[in-house]
Amino acid sequence: xxxxxxxxxKQYIIARIESGEWEEHARVPSENQLAEQFGCSRxxxxxxxTELVDAGVLERSQGLGTFVASLKSQSPMLSIRNxxxxxxxxxxxxxxxxxxxxxxxASAPIAIALGLETGSAVFYSVLVHCEQGLPLQLEERFVxxxxxxDYLAQDxxxxxxxxxxxxxxPLTEARHTIEAIVPKEQVQRRLEIPASEPCxxxxxxxxxxxxxxxxxxxxxxxxxxxxxGHLTFK
Length: 234
Fold this sequence. Notes:
Distance between the termini: 39 Å
Order of helices and strands: HHHEEEHEHEEHEHEEE
Number of strands: 10
Radius of gyration: 20 Å
Helix content: 25-40%
Largest sheet: 6 strands, antiparallel
Structural class: alpha+beta
Strand order of the largest sheet: 4-5-6-9-8-7
Strand content: 25-35%
Shape: elongated
């Protein structure tokens, strides 16, 4: 069955990377070699490699072959994906710690970001998303209760805020800024990193057709995360 062979190839590659047998930048077998080894079509082998490249597990070099990517987790810079899906696509285990889920008064910057009056009630959540049990992203999110009234009733141990918001208020627009920061002590504790480790911070506002849905601050340990992308110029 093609699906079984496809999954088998991906599992084979991921297992050798995680065991340390194939280290960073090691060349992996070609499509032809994998097709012969697993008794499948070259197209099936190509699909397995392509999906692992898209997930940041592997990287291709034109004319040279396919190699094990840097072991830092990578997210596409110009797209917004569910972090749980990103982690699972790399063949890794996803888990989450819900630290806060409450209502608070919006400070002036938060109110402006959400298009509300200062002091208005907003929903607030703090989660730590983990890959293989290790913190990968600290998510601090402010949500417009007028557009998402049932936000606080959700069980975010089973679905991410992004997944829920995309379902009830489909994304029509997003803006984000990216910068390197020196994390404060509380962030260091939540991400389980030393004081000397820099972080990558993404500030993101998202809109639905009804207006601004959320304002989020996403912080990643510098040693565990990177952003990447591929641009084609015509």
